[in-house]
Amino acid sequence: MWQEFLTMIRHPFFWGDFITVGYIMVRLIHARM
After folding, report:
1. How many separate domains does the chain show?
2. To 5 degrees, how large is the angle CA 9–CA 17–CA 21?
3. Residues 18, 16: Cα–Cα separation, whole Å
4. pLDDT tens per residue across all 33 residues of the chain
5. DSSP assignment of the chain, as one string?
6. Which residues cross the membrane (predicted)?
7. How far is CA 8 from CA 3, 4, 11, 18, 20, in A?
8. What contacts 8, CB < 8 A, 6 or more positions away?
9. CA-to-CA distance for 9 and 17, rounded, in angstroms?
10. Domain that includes residue 26, residue range
């Protein structure tokens, strides 16, 4: 299980999705203010 987790973290697409989701969340929060 840990091996799969480490492999997922090392995958570039994982970080790309993480940054994209974070960016969308920031945009939504700013839109409400």
Report:
1. 1
2. 125
3. 5
4. 678 888 877 877 778 888 899 999 999 999 988
5. -HHHHHHHHH-HHHHHHHHHHHHHHHHHHHHH-
6. 12-29
7. 9, 6, 5, 12, 16
8. 14
9. 11
10. 1-32
